[in-house]
Amino acid sequence: MRALLTSGGITNSSIHDALVDLLGKPIAESNALFIPTAIYPFPGGAGMAWRAISGKGPSPLAALGWKSLGLLELSVLPSIEEAAWVPTVRDADALLVWGGDPLFLANWMRRSGLTDLLPTLRSEAVYVGVSAGSIAAASTFVETFTEPPRGTDGPLKSEDVVFATPQGDVDRILVTGQGAGLVDFAVIPHLEHEHHLDASLANAEKWAARIPSPTYAIDDQTAVKVVDGAVEVVSEGQWKLFQP
Question: Which residues contact 88 (CB under 8 A, 6 or more apart)?
Fold first, then answer.
């Protein structure tokens, strides 16, 4: 399976062209499934999910002109037969994995069976991650929280939780999580973003030191493109690679 891991979605022509190149055909001839699961733990998550699905969110990922667009809600999948959803995933040209809480997303990727299914999908299928959707594609990732994360989102050892540099009047907790292992590197999104003040270059370097694999810190104008294990950075903005 191919991958296009973004911070803010399809935000410029370079990232758009990279998506078309990965698909190997126009978006208008491609079938996609939208996965909003990661957004639900946030206050107002239901409304944010609707805006994302309807193309009214901050990134028009669902409104790029797909031939068809379906909704794949991971938290529902364990309660239905695999025969009802697995063929739909196998037939999709692209999985559009939205942002939100990467721990929650990674947990439901495992519980739904999607994590195990991803390596068996067609080689030309494309995993398109946005923010948490990109974070959760790694084997090991880090994310910050203002409150301790839910224990139901996976086991957390005490040494996996540290206090990061305070931003403003809020202390944020840095947590190490286990992702899908679709790629052999990690992503730290929203580099130097005005609404993600903890994602500074200095903090990204500290966080990357806790990840046992190469880590790309990327801003919203950057994406990481993967084909057959070969990695290419597509950027009209700022990014930095940290080696373990």
Answer: 33, 70, 72
d(CA 101, CA 143): 9
CA distance 51 to 205: 33
143 within 8 A of 175, measured Cβ to Cβ: yes
Q: Can you name the residues that pair with 232 across neighbouring β-strands?
A: 225
Nearest alpha carbon to residue 144 among 218, 182, 73, 200 = 200
**By three-state DSSP, how is residue 23 classified?**
helix
Residue 161 has pLDDT above 60, yes or no: no
Which residues, in sequence order, are bridge partners of residue 178? Answer: 140
For residue 185, give Cα distances in angstroms to 21, 136, 141, 142, 192.
Answer: 21, 11, 9, 12, 20
3-class SS at 238?
coil
Q: Residue 65 corresponds to which tokens in the numbers above?
A: 């002109």
| Predicted confidence (pLDDT) per residue in 42-66, tens digit | 899 999 999 999 988 777 899 999 9
Q: What CATH number belongs to 2-139+181-242?
A: 3.40.50.880
CA dist., res. 109 & res. 114, Å (int): 5
Q: pLDDT tens for residues 203-242?
A: 899 889 999 999 999 999 999 999 999 999 999 999 999 9
pTM beyond 0.90: yes
**Amino acid identity, residue 89?**
V
Please, which residues bridge with residue 174 across strands?
144, 162
9: left (phi over 0), alpha (psi -120 to 50) or beta: left
User: Three-state SS for 79?
Assistant: helix
61, amino acid identity? L
Instruction: Tell me the pLDDT tens digit for each residue of 175-204.
Output: 889 999 999 999 999 998 777 667 788 889
